[in-house]
Amino acid sequence: MNKITGYTGLYGIVANPIKHSFSPMMHNTAFQYLGIDDVYLAFEVEENHFANFITSARILPIKGFNVSMPYKVKILSYLDELTPEAKLCQAVNTVKNDHGKLIGHISDGIGFIKACEEKHWDLDQQKIVVLGAGGAARAIVAALTKQAKDIIVYNRSHKDWVEQMNQQCHCSITLKSLQDMQSLKNDLKDAYLLIQTTNVGMEPHTDGCLIPDKSYLNKSLKVADIIYNPQETKLLTLAKEKGLEYMNGEGMILYQGAVSFEFWTGQKMPISEVKKSLKME
After folding, report:
1. What does the sequence similarity comment in the record state about its family (predicted)?
2. Distance (Å, whole) CA 243 – CA 245
């Protein structure tokens, strides 16, 4: 067990709300297991105090911090440098304080890819359908462009980032309307992976599902829903009833945390120990 000393370093996560996060348990377990004299806290910060938080992060100094809703885009104007991944996404969920220079990174998409790798899903040159075009979708699509052949994003409204990213990547990225259910059904006929990135199906509205029924899911389709509360959304229930491989958002949360941890410390997160702490195995 670590003991707090005058030398103990500080990390954290800033968002609103954030008290529900299991990031503190994840990172503190890793610090303690590796004998690192650091702690990780949750900072629930109102929007009108966000600039003050950034000033505090530089002054204290906070060695690094995660960023969640609603600050993943807002923080861009406060940072000194962005990694290539963050530049592509134009969003940040991880910040490292390098002697007063704040460097922004995005680990959501890489975390999702690592969760897929743990399932032994081979995304190379595959057709992938993504539901939603918010911040999480943007990060996941950016990461997928290094492997996938075709990515079709379905969303209720137009998003400029899809076309912008399509111009910067070798992978084909297409935006289609979520209202066009026949097009969605046709795209899913030969898709390798379906990724649900919206909050549809999340607690407390667990009856929600963007896929009407099992007929939309082909017999070899893999299904990922980045929601982890509940652990099994209605979409994942449909996938299970169809006998498909599927996963919820726990793996993505775990591995994006591991990417952040390594970005800060240069050390690998002890995944097995963290899983035990989070009761994930």
Report:
1. Belongs to the shikimate dehydrogenase family.
2. 7
